[in-house]
Inverse folding.
């Protein structure tokens, strides 16, 4: 165990996602039901609003940004104050403030006794398509006699704008959507999707706004990032298949996108920056980046059936994506598109090269033609009562930084009148 965790004033498990090196941020409520900012440490939540009122953080903030429904006000305070807050809490948790150590029961709350809330006010949500393995797998499924990648794919990060109104938190039920679906005679019918799918993704949280007409230089991209969350871009493949030409996803995607409750900061993830795949052909100058702009995060997905049978159905790593988060952000803004604090930008489905590393059931089941065995059950897509759990861990020889779990259960479609 790392020295900092050994010095912690509360026990820290060696397997916890929420180490002192991590301290992800979120929004919680407790007995008084007021929403406020917290940091996760082990099995506890640090009540930042309490600590500000008691004078631990008032030298950093002259106004109380911690009594809020979202992280946005705190994020708007800027990178220097994010870092100072994190370091102050690290010093508190290692016993360097004896006055507060005596009152730890007042500001250290068990996670199981608090309610976690959606952490951000998200104005805009963009979903990229940045994993080459995923794009190639999809291309092979639907364009069998052609190059699996479309001609533009290796020249720029491809994306579509999603729907921020249907962003939801881990734990939220996913109601099976209705839509137009082609039958065996290639005629449209209206019924609930039979091909409900997950998509394993990471999403960056924008931490610094820009003015319209001002692109973000790729070498400054990190300055605009607050942190990352796990993201599941739920997909109705049969609805999507009929509607996506010529303008791309619509009802097959906009019914639900879920995120993990804790935002892992960019500062906590700095030790896990790494090189990504070699890009060939060479990219244009505005997409040419320094080394070490990918993230080394192990990701996995577990499917729990409605009969409570469990199976880890995929395991991959975020460093597999072709287009880095810096390239995504630079391309997103190269035409002058402005970004705002709290905006979410997702990686797109993250898949590895090999079977067992694929980030969606579309790939795992070969578009529903190969069933996945889970004990005495089988699945090609997600059924009512099934749950999908996504986890992410970055670790080195010294410590680990995790995201917690993103888990949602699927409920039956609503009845149409």
């Amino acid at each position: 165990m790392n020295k900092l965790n050994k010095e912690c004033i509360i026990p820290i498990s060696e397997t916890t996602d929420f180490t002192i090196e991590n301290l992800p941020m979120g929004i919680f409520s407790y007995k008084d039901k007021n929403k406020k900012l917290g940091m996760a440490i082990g099995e506890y939540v640090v009540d930042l609003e309490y600590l500000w009122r008691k004078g631990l953080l008032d030298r950093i903030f002259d106004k109380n940004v911690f009594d809020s429904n979202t992280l946005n006000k705190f994020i708007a305070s800027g990178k220097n104050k994010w870092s100072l807050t994190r370091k102050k809490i690290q010093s508190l948790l290692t016993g360097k403030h004896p006055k507060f150590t005596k009152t730890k029961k007042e500001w250290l709350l068990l996670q199981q006794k608090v309610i976690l809330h959606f952490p951000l006010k998200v104005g805009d949500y963009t979903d990229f398509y940045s994993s080459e393995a995923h794009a190639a797998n999809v291309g092979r499924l639907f364009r069998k006699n052609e190059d699996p990648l479309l001609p533009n794919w290796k020249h720029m990060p491809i994306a579509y704008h999603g729907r921020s109104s249907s962003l939801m938190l881990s734990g939220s039920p996913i109601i099976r959507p209705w839509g137009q679906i082609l039958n065996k005679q290639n005629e449209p019918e209206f019924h609930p999707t039979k091909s409900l799918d997950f998509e394993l993704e990471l999403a960056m949280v924008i931490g610094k706004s820009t003015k319209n007409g001002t692109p973000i230089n790729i070498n400054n991209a990190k300055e605009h990032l607050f942190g990352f969350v796990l993201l599941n871009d739920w997909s109705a493949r049969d609805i999507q298949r009929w509607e996506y030409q010529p303008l791309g996803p619509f009802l097959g995607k906009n019914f639900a996108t879920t995120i993990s409750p804790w935002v892992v900061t960019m500062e906590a993830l700095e030790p896990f920056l790494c090189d990504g795949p070699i890009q060939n052909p060479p990219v244009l100058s505005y997409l040419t980046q320094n080394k070490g702009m990918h993230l080394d995060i192990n990701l996995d997905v577990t499917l729990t059936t409605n009969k409570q049978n469990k199976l880890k159905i995929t395991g991959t790593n975020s460093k597999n994506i072709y287009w880095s988060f810096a390239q995504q952000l630079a391309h997103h803004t190269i035409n002058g598109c402005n970004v705002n604090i709290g905006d979410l930008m997702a990686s797109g489905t993250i898949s590895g090269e090999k079977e067992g590393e694929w980030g969606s059931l579309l790939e795992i089941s070969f578009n529903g033609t190969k069933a996945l065995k889970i004990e005495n059950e089988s699945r090609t897509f997600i059924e009512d009562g099934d749950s999908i759990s996504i986890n992410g861990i970055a670790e080195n020889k010294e410590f680990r930084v995790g995201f917690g779990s993103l888990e949602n259960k699927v409920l039956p479609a609503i009845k149409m009148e």
